[in-house]
Amino acid sequence: MKNGIFSIGIKGELLVFLSAMGFATMGVLGKMAYSYGLNTTTLLFLRFFIAAIILFLVSHILKRPLKLNAKDGIIGFGFGFGFIGYNLVSFCYFYSLNFIPASLTAVIFFTYPIFVTLFSFAFFKEKLTPNKILSLILGSVGILSIVSPGKAQVDYRGIIFSLLGGILYAFYVLGLSLPRVKKIDSVKMSFYTNIFAALGMGIAALVSNTFIYPINIFALSYAALIGIFATSVAMLALFAGVKRIGAVKGSIIANMEIVIACILGAVFLNEKMGIYQLMGAVLIIISAIMVSLPNKALKKVSLENSFEVK
Predict the structure, then answer these.
(1) Which has the closest alpha carbon to 92: 40, 162, 25, 38?
(2) Residues 153/276, Cβ–Cβ less than 8 Å
(3) What is the per-residue DSSP string for 90-101?
(4) Which candidate in 33, 53, 58, 172 could, as Cys together with 38 as Cys, close a disulfide (CB 3.0–4.6 Å)?
(5) Alpha carbon separation from 152 to 14, 93, 96, 142, 290 (Å, rounded)
(6) What is the spatial distance between Cα 87 and Cα 257, in angstroms, rounded to a whole number?
(7) pTM of the predicted model, to two decimals?
Protein backbone atom coordinates (compact mmCIF):
# COMPACT_ATOMS: atom_id res chain seq x y z
CA MET A 1 0.00 0.00 0.00
CA LYS A 2 1.29 3.46 -0.89
CA ASN A 3 1.16 6.44 1.44
CA GLY A 4 2.51 9.35 -0.58
CA ILE A 5 6.22 9.98 -0.40
CA PHE A 6 6.65 7.44 2.38
CA SER A 7 5.35 4.55 0.27
CA ILE A 8 7.43 1.40 0.04
CA GLY A 9 7.82 1.97 -3.69
CA ILE A 10 9.18 5.49 -3.35
CA LYS A 11 11.56 4.46 -0.59
CA GLY A 12 12.83 1.63 -2.73
CA GLU A 13 13.37 3.91 -5.71
CA LEU A 14 15.36 6.34 -3.60
CA LEU A 15 17.52 3.52 -2.22
CA VAL A 16 18.34 2.19 -5.70
CA PHE A 17 19.07 5.73 -6.90
CA LEU A 18 21.39 6.21 -3.88
CA SER A 19 23.11 2.98 -4.88
CA ALA A 20 23.54 4.24 -8.46
CA MET A 21 25.06 7.46 -7.13
CA GLY A 22 27.48 5.49 -4.98
CA PHE A 23 28.68 3.23 -7.79
CA ALA A 24 28.90 6.25 -10.13
CA THR A 25 31.44 7.98 -7.87
CA MET A 26 34.02 5.19 -8.18
CA GLY A 27 35.68 6.54 -11.30
CA VAL A 28 35.93 10.14 -10.12
CA LEU A 29 37.16 9.15 -6.66
CA GLY A 30 39.63 6.74 -8.23
CA LYS A 31 41.05 9.47 -10.47
CA MET A 32 41.39 11.79 -7.46
CA ALA A 33 43.15 9.09 -5.43
CA TYR A 34 45.57 8.57 -8.34
CA SER A 35 46.29 12.30 -8.42
CA TYR A 36 47.64 12.02 -4.85
CA GLY A 37 50.02 9.19 -5.65
CA LEU A 38 48.02 5.98 -5.22
CA ASN A 39 48.27 3.22 -7.81
CA THR A 40 45.66 0.62 -8.77
CA THR A 41 46.80 -2.26 -6.54
CA THR A 42 47.14 -0.14 -3.38
CA LEU A 43 43.82 1.64 -3.99
CA LEU A 44 41.94 -1.62 -4.51
CA PHE A 45 43.49 -3.24 -1.42
CA LEU A 46 42.32 -0.26 0.65
CA ARG A 47 38.89 -0.34 -0.97
CA PHE A 48 38.30 -4.01 -0.22
CA PHE A 49 39.74 -3.84 3.31
CA ILE A 50 37.71 -0.78 4.31
CA ALA A 51 34.54 -2.22 2.75
CA ALA A 52 35.05 -5.47 4.71
CA ILE A 53 35.30 -3.49 7.97
CA ILE A 54 32.07 -1.62 7.20
CA LEU A 55 30.24 -4.83 6.28
CA PHE A 56 31.53 -6.48 9.46
CA LEU A 57 30.03 -3.65 11.53
CA VAL A 58 26.77 -3.75 9.56
CA SER A 59 26.45 -7.51 10.08
CA HIS A 60 26.64 -7.03 13.84
CA ILE A 61 24.20 -4.10 13.84
CA LEU A 62 21.70 -6.09 11.76
CA LYS A 63 22.52 -9.29 13.64
CA ARG A 64 23.41 -11.12 10.42
CA PRO A 65 25.87 -13.86 11.53
CA LEU A 66 29.15 -14.22 9.64
CA LYS A 67 29.95 -17.62 11.11
CA LEU A 68 31.64 -19.96 8.66
CA ASN A 69 29.50 -22.87 7.55
CA ALA A 70 30.96 -25.71 5.52
CA LYS A 71 27.52 -26.53 4.10
CA ASP A 72 26.97 -23.18 2.37
CA GLY A 73 30.39 -23.29 0.70
CA ILE A 74 31.16 -19.68 1.65
CA ILE A 75 34.94 -20.26 1.72
CA GLY A 76 35.02 -21.64 -1.80
CA PHE A 77 32.62 -19.08 -3.19
CA GLY A 78 34.36 -16.26 -1.31
CA PHE A 79 37.70 -17.32 -2.76
CA GLY A 80 36.33 -17.73 -6.30
CA PHE A 81 34.30 -14.54 -6.40
CA GLY A 82 36.61 -12.41 -4.24
CA PHE A 83 40.21 -13.56 -4.58
CA ILE A 84 39.80 -14.13 -8.32
CA GLY A 85 36.61 -12.66 -9.82
CA TYR A 86 36.17 -9.44 -7.83
CA ASN A 87 39.88 -8.65 -8.13
CA LEU A 88 40.02 -9.13 -11.90
CA VAL A 89 36.88 -7.08 -12.56
CA SER A 90 37.90 -4.25 -10.23
CA PHE A 91 41.48 -4.18 -11.49
CA CYS A 92 40.32 -3.82 -15.11
CA TYR A 93 37.87 -1.05 -14.17
CA PHE A 94 40.30 1.00 -12.09
CA TYR A 95 43.33 0.36 -14.29
CA SER A 96 41.43 1.76 -17.28
CA LEU A 97 41.12 5.05 -15.35
CA ASN A 98 44.83 5.58 -16.00
CA PHE A 99 44.13 5.98 -19.72
CA ILE A 100 40.59 7.29 -20.35
CA PRO A 101 38.08 9.59 -18.61
CA ALA A 102 36.16 8.18 -15.65
CA SER A 103 32.85 8.77 -17.44
CA LEU A 104 34.01 6.77 -20.48
CA THR A 105 35.19 3.92 -18.26
CA ALA A 106 31.74 3.75 -16.65
CA VAL A 107 29.95 3.82 -20.01
CA ILE A 108 32.06 1.05 -21.58
CA PHE A 109 31.92 -1.10 -18.45
CA PHE A 110 28.13 -0.86 -18.53
CA THR A 111 28.10 -2.97 -21.67
CA TYR A 112 28.18 -5.98 -19.34
CA PRO A 113 24.39 -6.63 -19.64
CA ILE A 114 25.02 -7.24 -23.35
CA PHE A 115 27.58 -9.93 -22.52
CA VAL A 116 25.31 -11.43 -19.85
CA THR A 117 22.68 -11.80 -22.58
CA LEU A 118 25.17 -13.34 -25.03
CA PHE A 119 26.64 -15.76 -22.49
CA SER A 120 23.17 -16.75 -21.25
CA PHE A 121 22.24 -17.59 -24.83
CA ALA A 122 25.52 -19.42 -25.54
CA PHE A 123 25.84 -21.41 -22.31
CA PHE A 124 22.30 -21.67 -20.91
CA LYS A 125 20.32 -21.61 -24.18
CA GLU A 126 18.17 -18.69 -23.02
CA LYS A 127 15.92 -17.34 -25.75
CA LEU A 128 16.91 -14.09 -27.46
CA THR A 129 13.78 -11.94 -27.32
CA PRO A 130 13.29 -9.02 -29.77
CA ASN A 131 14.21 -6.40 -27.15
CA LYS A 132 17.40 -8.34 -26.34
CA ILE A 133 18.41 -8.57 -30.00
CA LEU A 134 17.81 -4.84 -30.50
CA SER A 135 19.72 -4.15 -27.30
CA LEU A 136 22.70 -6.15 -28.60
CA ILE A 137 22.67 -4.24 -31.88
CA LEU A 138 22.46 -0.83 -30.18
CA GLY A 139 25.16 -1.74 -27.68
CA SER A 140 27.49 -3.00 -30.41
CA VAL A 141 26.98 0.16 -32.48
CA GLY A 142 27.60 2.17 -29.30
CA ILE A 143 30.95 0.49 -28.71
CA LEU A 144 31.98 0.98 -32.34
CA SER A 145 30.98 4.64 -32.09
CA ILE A 146 33.14 5.14 -29.01
CA VAL A 147 36.23 3.65 -30.64
CA SER A 148 35.67 5.52 -33.92
CA PRO A 149 38.25 8.18 -34.76
CA GLY A 150 37.21 11.74 -34.14
CA LYS A 151 38.43 15.00 -32.66
CA ALA A 152 38.55 13.46 -29.18
CA GLN A 153 41.61 11.21 -28.88
CA VAL A 154 40.90 8.01 -26.94
CA ASP A 155 43.61 5.73 -25.53
CA TYR A 156 42.69 2.23 -26.66
CA ARG A 157 44.32 0.68 -23.60
CA GLY A 158 41.60 2.23 -21.46
CA ILE A 159 38.88 0.97 -23.79
CA ILE A 160 40.32 -2.56 -23.78
CA PHE A 161 40.58 -2.78 -19.99
CA SER A 162 37.14 -1.28 -19.30
CA LEU A 163 35.55 -3.56 -21.91
CA LEU A 164 37.41 -6.57 -20.49
CA GLY A 165 36.10 -5.58 -17.06
CA GLY A 166 32.55 -5.62 -18.43
CA ILE A 167 33.07 -9.06 -20.00
CA LEU A 168 34.50 -10.51 -16.77
CA TYR A 169 31.69 -8.92 -14.76
CA ALA A 170 29.17 -10.66 -17.01
CA PHE A 171 30.68 -14.02 -16.01
CA TYR A 172 30.62 -12.82 -12.41
CA VAL A 173 26.90 -12.02 -12.67
CA LEU A 174 26.14 -15.46 -14.08
CA GLY A 175 28.14 -17.07 -11.28
CA LEU A 176 26.21 -15.14 -8.64
CA SER A 177 22.94 -16.40 -10.12
CA LEU A 178 23.81 -20.01 -9.22
CA PRO A 179 21.19 -21.47 -6.84
CA ARG A 180 23.70 -22.29 -4.06
CA VAL A 181 25.19 -18.80 -4.14
CA LYS A 182 21.78 -17.10 -4.03
CA LYS A 183 20.98 -18.96 -0.79
CA ILE A 184 23.88 -17.29 1.03
CA ASP A 185 23.03 -14.13 3.00
CA SER A 186 23.96 -11.09 0.89
CA VAL A 187 25.86 -9.29 3.69
CA LYS A 188 27.79 -12.45 4.57
CA MET A 189 28.66 -13.12 0.93
CA SER A 190 29.76 -9.51 0.41
CA PHE A 191 31.89 -9.53 3.56
CA TYR A 192 33.83 -12.67 2.65
CA THR A 193 34.12 -11.57 -0.98
CA ASN A 194 35.79 -8.34 0.16
CA ILE A 195 38.01 -10.15 2.67
CA PHE A 196 39.31 -12.56 0.02
CA ALA A 197 39.63 -9.72 -2.49
CA ALA A 198 41.70 -7.66 -0.04
CA LEU A 199 43.90 -10.70 0.63
CA GLY A 200 44.38 -11.34 -3.08
CA MET A 201 45.11 -7.73 -3.99
CA GLY A 202 47.42 -7.34 -0.98
CA ILE A 203 49.47 -10.35 -2.12
CA ALA A 204 49.52 -9.03 -5.72
CA ALA A 205 50.73 -5.62 -4.55
CA LEU A 206 53.52 -7.11 -2.41
CA VAL A 207 54.66 -9.62 -5.05
CA SER A 208 54.72 -6.95 -7.77
CA ASN A 209 56.36 -4.49 -5.37
CA THR A 210 53.65 -1.91 -6.13
CA PHE A 211 52.28 -1.39 -2.62
CA ILE A 212 52.64 2.29 -1.74
CA TYR A 213 53.58 3.30 1.80
CA PRO A 214 53.34 5.78 3.44
CA ILE A 215 50.02 6.85 1.95
CA ASN A 216 49.08 10.49 1.46
CA ILE A 217 46.21 11.46 3.79
CA PHE A 218 44.14 12.82 0.89
CA ALA A 219 44.68 9.65 -1.14
CA LEU A 220 43.64 7.59 1.89
CA SER A 221 40.51 9.73 2.26
CA TYR A 222 39.45 9.09 -1.33
CA ALA A 223 40.15 5.36 -0.92
CA ALA A 224 38.00 5.38 2.22
CA LEU A 225 35.16 7.08 0.35
CA ILE A 226 35.34 4.38 -2.33
CA GLY A 227 35.29 1.64 0.29
CA ILE A 228 32.45 3.19 2.30
CA PHE A 229 30.12 5.06 -0.08
CA ALA A 230 30.95 3.59 -3.50
CA THR A 231 31.10 0.00 -2.24
CA SER A 232 29.45 -0.78 1.13
CA VAL A 233 26.67 1.81 1.14
CA ALA A 234 25.97 1.36 -2.58
CA MET A 235 25.67 -2.42 -2.24
CA LEU A 236 23.49 -2.35 0.88
CA ALA A 237 21.20 0.35 -0.58
CA LEU A 238 20.75 -1.74 -3.71
CA PHE A 239 19.86 -4.85 -1.73
CA ALA A 240 17.27 -2.97 0.34
CA GLY A 241 15.86 -1.08 -2.65
CA VAL A 242 15.42 -4.11 -4.90
CA LYS A 243 13.60 -5.98 -2.13
CA ARG A 244 11.06 -3.14 -2.05
CA ILE A 245 10.46 -2.43 -5.73
CA GLY A 246 11.60 -5.58 -7.53
CA ALA A 247 14.37 -6.46 -9.96
CA VAL A 248 12.89 -4.99 -13.16
CA LYS A 249 12.17 -1.51 -11.82
CA GLY A 250 15.40 -1.56 -9.82
CA SER A 251 17.54 -2.45 -12.83
CA ILE A 252 16.11 0.40 -14.89
CA ILE A 253 16.77 2.95 -12.12
CA ALA A 254 20.27 1.49 -11.61
CA ASN A 255 21.10 2.46 -15.20
CA MET A 256 21.18 6.07 -13.97
CA GLU A 257 24.69 5.22 -12.80
CA ILE A 258 26.03 5.93 -16.30
CA VAL A 259 24.39 9.35 -16.48
CA ILE A 260 25.54 10.31 -12.98
CA ALA A 261 29.10 9.15 -13.73
CA CYS A 262 29.19 11.37 -16.84
CA ILE A 263 27.88 14.36 -14.88
CA LEU A 264 30.38 13.86 -12.04
CA GLY A 265 33.24 13.51 -14.54
CA ALA A 266 32.28 16.77 -16.23
CA VAL A 267 31.82 18.69 -12.96
CA PHE A 268 34.79 17.48 -10.90
CA LEU A 269 37.32 16.44 -13.56
CA ASN A 270 36.31 18.70 -16.45
CA GLU A 271 35.95 15.65 -18.67
CA LYS A 272 34.63 16.06 -22.18
CA MET A 273 33.58 13.53 -24.81
CA GLY A 274 33.72 13.86 -28.56
CA ILE A 275 30.55 13.61 -30.61
CA TYR A 276 31.19 9.94 -31.45
CA GLN A 277 31.76 9.10 -27.77
CA LEU A 278 28.56 10.92 -26.77
CA MET A 279 26.57 9.08 -29.43
CA GLY A 280 28.04 5.78 -28.27
CA ALA A 281 27.25 6.56 -24.63
CA VAL A 282 23.61 7.30 -25.47
CA LEU A 283 23.28 4.06 -27.44
CA ILE A 284 24.81 2.01 -24.61
CA ILE A 285 22.46 3.63 -22.06
CA ILE A 286 19.45 2.79 -24.26
CA SER A 287 20.82 -0.72 -24.74
CA ALA A 288 21.23 -1.25 -20.98
CA ILE A 289 17.67 -0.05 -20.33
CA MET A 290 16.23 -2.28 -23.05
CA VAL A 291 17.95 -5.41 -21.77
CA SER A 292 16.52 -4.58 -18.31
CA LEU A 293 12.93 -4.62 -19.55
CA PRO A 294 10.72 -7.52 -18.39
CA ASN A 295 11.70 -10.89 -19.82
CA LYS A 296 12.12 -14.47 -18.70
CA ALA A 297 15.82 -14.06 -17.93
CA LEU A 298 15.01 -11.79 -15.02
CA LYS A 299 13.48 -14.76 -13.27
CA LYS A 300 16.81 -16.58 -13.47
CA VAL A 301 19.32 -13.81 -12.79
CA SER A 302 18.59 -11.79 -9.65
CA LEU A 303 19.43 -8.10 -9.85
CA GLU A 304 20.47 -8.13 -6.21
CA ASN A 305 23.10 -10.73 -6.99
CA SER A 306 24.03 -9.12 -10.30
CA PHE A 307 25.09 -5.92 -8.59
CA GLU A 308 26.42 -7.49 -5.42
CA VAL A 309 29.93 -6.18 -5.99
CA LYS A 310 31.43 -3.97 -8.62
Answers:
(1) 162
(2) no
(3) HHHHHHHTTTS-
(4) 33
(5) 35, 21, 17, 16, 28
(6) 21
(7) 0.87
